[in-house]
Structures are given as structure tokens and as C-alpha cells.
Design a protein that fits this description.
The complex is a heterodimer of chains A (about 325) and B (about 290).
Chain A lengths: L1 H23 L4 H26 L7 H19 L3 H22 L5 H20 L10 E2 L12 H25 L1 H11 L1 H6 L4 H20 L2 H5 L1 E2 L1 H4 L2 H14 L5 H20 L2 H18 L3 H11 L7
Antiparallel strand pairs in A: 1-2
Helix pairs in contact in A: 1-6, 2-6, 2-9, 2-12, 2-13, 3-4, 3-5, 3-9, 4-9, 6-7, 7-9, 12-13, 12-14, 12-15, 13-14
Chain B lengths: L3 H31 L7 H16 L5 H28 L5 H24 L14 E4 L2 E4 H23 L1 H11 L1 H6 L4 H26 L7 H15 L4 H22 L4 H15 L8
Antiparallel strand pairs in B: 1-2
Classes of the chains: A mainly alpha (about 325), B mainly alpha (about 290).
Chain lengths: ~325, ~290
């Protein structure tokens, strides 16, 4: 177990070092532009999986937390001129609070009721922002990026490194939850909430904890968006396509292991970028939908599950 | 300024709108309320029905006739969807909830993007001689298309209520919702009954889709707003209650219409979702829960 932990941290450090190295090289600017989006989905998918994968509560409202994160950053920037790290921290705090609130409100709900409630939260928040003049309302808000700091050539490169740090952080948190007693408790909730409660698992606290952490990470993922686009508007930042992607990626990668969402996000995120550039942006939603349905029907354990099955029976052909 | 006339207008329009909302939700009331299928894709099927109507309308069909013609086709689609859902999720048992939800969520987006690829993102509408005219009662003007939708909605709700209460298969559907294993012990096959019921729910959705495009222009992403409206009505009604569906539709229609008049159109989409959250938070079993 210890050796595995060391391997994880070496891998994490290597990922960060690689990202920094690439960002000071003279790689094509588009690489950072696309890489940022893929990494953002790593954070979103990992965050979704803490609640959806471990505890079995399907969140359709990823867009809400993401959008709230983005708009918190806008307010922080407009009102206080806060630097990026402060924007991200504030976004995580507000979205975490929103996650906590959603958890409190929906404690009695299970299955589809919980999922529908999260859609409701997303649409209501979108409507609020739509009617809030200070952040631009329906037309959105244009932001002027501050000058970029030292080693980076462009702002996109800096955001790319920032998103890498967020992604590694999110995965580390998810991994900690998965391997600790919290993860065991969440899995018990997923298998049978009554049985878990009867055996002394503090289901209420654990669910609230998972809602909060998941929400906070989604918010953090959304915080750099205004700087990345130098523009935000509610329709696209609260979009349900974030919700379907954040749900599809762990489902495709495998929900039981922290590696699942990462694999799913990198795979699907990259396909999406390629499809968007070569064909059209509508089609990439179709790709997400089709792959999601395919995996849910044919390979419910995801890619991680398939790999495990292959490893367990190397002699037999996979069925 | 606030005036009584304005409020009266809003209420009348709300009643018409409410019946329409009941009609678009009644398929979900059967599929989700009675059969416990997490049918998130219901609004997407609704929009699919609208586009089917639009397609036939381009060949000179009346939208209502088109909607009725689509029903047998949608029935078969519904039977196939339920069969597939049963074989892949319900029968394998473990974890059906999460994966079933993800499945229908995926289907929603497949339908939505499929429609975008086929028809583009533009709004589409149909033509008929009752669209665009309105009926004047005193100072009040009621659009004729709302009246058509209102009448159809009432007929649909009444028809389905009677069907479930009076016919043999209708009662069997209610029985399957109450106690599936008891039904199995009586020698009936619950899967076949559910399949039939899901087919009917989908067929009704085709006609509701025709009404949707009669009431206003339709675009592929319209299903997202209707996720809130349809689930709000079904949950508020209490799962599986048909008269409840009508009353819940009226509550939603009137509240939405009043908010529309007093606060403006940009707040209207939040009404259904807000009402839904309140119901889920306070009384998850709905007004007429079983």
C-alpha cells in the first residue's frame, strides 16, 4: 500500500513537472488552449465521481457548480481585482457552500429525485445570473486579463499550469477519499443506505461531506474560465453539456477507481477537441451521448473494469 | 402597474397553459409515476414528436392529424425502449438506478443532437387555420391555438384516466405499479404489461409533441426546459395520479403565467424548477401521493 502511495505522488509530481516544462517550451499555442479544456474535464469528472461514483448519487447539475465558480471569479475580479489563486479559492468556497446547501435540501431524496433536484438548482441559478445586471445578465461580461507573470509567455500557458495543479489536487483528494474510511462509508451508502445506517455509518455526514467536496472542486474548475475566455455568459457556463460530460467521463473510465474519471476525461476530452476542430461542436455532444450509452449498456465497469477483467483472465479471451 | 384585469388575464392564460402542461406530462406520469422508469428522456421524446409533426406538416398535414398518425409509431418505439431498458438494467438488477439514469440522460442528448444535425438549431413551427387567430371574449383575447391545446389536453387526460380505471389492461397497469410480485403470483407477466404501458406513455407523448409545436415554435434544445416542467408536474401530482397530474399542471401553469406577467419572461423558466425544489424539499410524495 505504501509503495503504491509513493508511486502516486511521484506520478503526480511528474505530471506537474511535465506541464511546467511544456508551458515554457515553444509548443503550439493551440495545445494549451485544448489541453486546458481536457484538464478542466479531469477536475469535473473527478469531482462528479466523488458523489456519483462512490456514493451513487447522480448529479445532473455539474453546470450549476461550474457556473457558480466562474461567476464567483468574475465578482472577485470585478469588485476586488483579486488575483487568480484567490478567485479559485473563493469559487471553491462558494461552490462548496452551494454543494452543502444542495445536500441539506436533498437529504431525503434518492435516485432520480436527487438528480432532478440538481437540474433544478442549475436552472434556477442560471436564471438568477441571467437577471443579475452587475455580472452582465444574459449578454455576459467582458473581462480584461491582467498582465501575465514571469516564466510564462502567455496567459493561456499560465492557466494551463494552474489547471494542471487543480487536476492533480482533485485527483489526490479523490484518491484520499477512496482509500480512507470515508470512501468505505460512501460505498456502503451506494450499496444500501439502510444497511449502512444500521451498521453505524454516519450516512448523513458522509453525504454532506461528499456533496461539499464535489461541489467545491467543480467550482474551482470553473473559476479560471472567465480569464481563459476573457468573457463569460450564463447560457454557456451553466450549460447541461457540462453535466452530461462530467457524468459520461467517469462512467466511461470506470467509477470505482480514481483513475477511471481521469482516463475517461482525457480520452473523451481529447476526442471532443478533435471532433470540434475537424467536424463540428454539435457532434462532440453526440459523441459523448453515444459513448455514454454504449458503455453504460455494454461495459458498466468502464475502461478500468475492462482492464481488470483482462488482467484477471489473461488466458481466456474477453467475453 | 398592477391591475386586476392583468391578473385575470394571467389566470385565464395560466389555466390554458396548465392543461397543456398536464398533457405533456401525462406520458411521464405513466412511465415514471406508475412504472418507476427514470425516464429523463421523456421531454426529448416530446420534442421528437414535435419534429415528426413538423415533418408531416411540411407535406400539408394538419398538426393534430399528424400527431395522431405518429402515435402507433411512437408506441412501437416505446415498447422497444422499455424492452431494452428491462433487459439491460432492470433484469441485471445491481446498480440499475445510477446506470439507468445515465442511460436516459445519454439518450436525451443523442436525440437533441440528432435533431440539430437533421433540422439545424433554428426554431420550427407548423401552420394550420387555427394557429395565429384568437378568440375575443369581452376585453380578453384568447389565442385559438391555446384553446385547441387545452381541449386536446383535457381529452387526453380524461381518456387516459378512464383507460386506467375501466379497462382490463389499464387496471393491470395500475396493479403492476402497486405490487409486481403479487401480479406475478396471479399468473400475469408484469414485464409485458409494463412494456405495453410504456408504449402507451410514449404514444401519448407523440400527440403531446404535436400540441407543443401548435402552442409555439420548437427548437431541438427545448427539452431542457421541459425536464423541469414535466417532472415538476409529475412529482407535484404524486407519482402516478392522473387527476393529480391535471391539478399539478394547472398549479404550474397559473404560477408561471402570473410570474410571466409580473416579473417578465426571463424569470419564467425558473418557476417550474423552483416549485419542483419546494415540493421535493417539503412534500416529496406530492399532493396525491400513493
Amino acid at each position: 500500500m505504501k509503495a503504491r502511495g509513493a508511486a502516486f505522488w511521484i506520478g503526480a509530481a511528474a505530471a506537474i513537472a511535465l506541464a511546467v516544462a511544456v508551458s515554457v517550451s515553444n509548443a503550439n499555442e493551440y495545445f494549451f488552449f485544448a489541453g486546458y479544456v481536457v484538464l478542466q474535464f479531469v477536475v469535473l469528472a473527478t469531482a462528479w465521481n466523488i458523489l456519483g461514483g462512490y456514493a451513487g448519487y447522480v448529479n445532473f447539475g455539474t453546470g450549476a457548480f461550474f457556473g457558480v465558480g466562474a461567476y464567483t471569479a468574475v465578482v472577485m475580479f470585478k469588485a476586488l481585482g483579486a488575483p487568480l489563486p484567490a478567485q479559485i479559492l473563493a469559487a471553491a468556497a462558494v461552490s462548496g457552500l452551494l454543494g452543502f446547501g444542495t445536500g441539506l435540501l436533498t437529504l431525503r431524496l434518492r435516485g432520480i429525485f436527487f438528480s432532478i433536484a440538481t437540474v433544478a438548482v442549475a436552472i434556477i441559478l442560471q436564471t438568477l445570473i441571467l437577471n443579475w445586471r452587475y455580472v452582465g445578465g444574459a449578454t455576459g461580461v467582458q473581462l480584461l486579463r491582467p498582465p501575465v507573470s514571469a516564466p510564462f509567455e502567455s496567459y493561456t500557458r499560465m492557466l494551463f499550469v494552474g489547471m494542471t495543479l487543480l487536476a492533480v489536487g482533485a485527483v489526490a483528494i479523490a484518491r484520499y477519499i477512496e482509500t480512507s474510511w470515508i470512501g468505505r462509508g460512501l460505498r456502503a451508502i451506494r450499496d444500501s443506505e439502510e444497511a449502512a445506517e444500521c451498521s453505524g455509518v454516519p450516512t448523513l455526514k458522509l453525504k454532506l461531506f461528499a456533496c461539499t467536496v464535489s461541489g467545491a472542486l467543480m467550482g474551482a474548475a470553473g473559476a479560471p474560465l472567465p480569464m481563459y475566455q476573457s468573457f463569460v455568459e450564463p447560457e454557456s457556463s451553466f450549460n447541461l453539456t457540462y453535466s452530461v460530460a462530467a457524468l459520461a467521463m467517469p462512467m466511461i473510465g470506470g467509477t470505482a477507481h480514481w483513475l477511471g474519471p481521469v482516463i475517461g476525461a482525457i480520452l473523451l476530452g481529447t476526442i471532443q477537441q478533435v471532433v470540434t476542430v475537424t467536424i463540428s461542436s454539435e457532434l462532440n455532444v453526440l459523441v459523448v451521448g453515444v459513448l455514454l450509452v454504449l458503455f453504460v449498456v455494454a461495459a458498466p465497469e468502464g475502461i478500468v473494469g475492462l482492464a481488470r477483467k483482462l488482467r484477471r483472465s489473461p488466458a481466456r479471451a474477453p467475453t | 402597474m398592477f391591475s386586476f384585469d392583468l391578473l385575470l388575464d394571467a389566470v385565464v392564460f395560466g389555466i390554458l397553459l396548465g392543461c397543456f402542461y398536464a398533457a405533456v406530462s401525462i406520458g411521464l406520469s405513466v412511465a415514471f409515476g406508475l412504472l418507476d422508469v427514470p425516464h429523463i428522456a421523456h421531454p426529448a421524446f416530446l420534442v421528437l414528436g414535435s419534429y415528426g409533426t413538423y415533418l408531416l406538416g411540411r407535406h400539408g398535414w394538419d398538426p393534430l392529424v399528424a400527431g395522431i398518425t405518429l402515435m402507433p409509431l411512437f408506441f412501437l418505439v416505446g415498447v422497444a425502449v422499455y424492452r431494452f431498458y428491462y433487459e439491460t438494467f432492470e433484469r441485471r438488477g445491481r446498480d440499475a438506478g445510477v446506470r439507468g439514469l445515465a442511460f436516459f440522460f445519454g439518450v436525451t442528448f443523442i436525440i437533441e443532437v440528432g435533431l440539430i444535425l437533421a433540422f439545424g438549431v433554428d426554431q420550427r413551427m407548423v401552420e394550420a387555420n387555427y394557429i395565429g387567430k384568437s378568440l375575443a371574449i369581452g376585453d380578453m383575447r384568447i389565442p385559438l391555438r391555446m384553446l385547441v391545446a387545452f381541449a386536446m389536453a383535457l381529452a387526453l387526460t380524461a381518456g387516459l384516466t378512464l383507460y386506467l380505471a375501466k379497462t382490463f389492461t389499464g387496471r393491470a397497469i395500475k396493479a403492476v405499479a402497486q405490487d409486481e410480485s403479487a401480479l406475478r403470483l396471479m399468473g400475469a407477466n408484469p414485464v409485458r404489461i409494463k412494456q405495453w404501458a410504456f408504449g402507451i406513455a410514449t404514444a401519448v407523448t407523440a400527440l403531446a409533441g404535436a400540441m407543443l409545436i401548435i402552442v409555439g415554435p420548437v427548437e431541438p434544445s427545448l427539452d431542457r426546459v421541459y425536464i423541469g416542467r414535466t417532472f415538476c408536474v409529475v412529482v407535484l401530482a404524486g407519482l402516478g395520479s392522473m387527476t393529480g397530474t391535471l391539478i399539478a399542471g394547472l398549479i404550474l401553469g397559473i404560477s408561471e403565467s402570473i410570474v410571466l406577467t409580473l416579473a417578465g419572461a426571463s424569470w419564467a423558466p425558473a418557476v417550474a424548477f423552483g416549485l419542483l425544489l419546494v415540493v421535493l424539499g417539503i412534500r416529496p410524495q406530492g399532493l396525491f401521493g400513493r
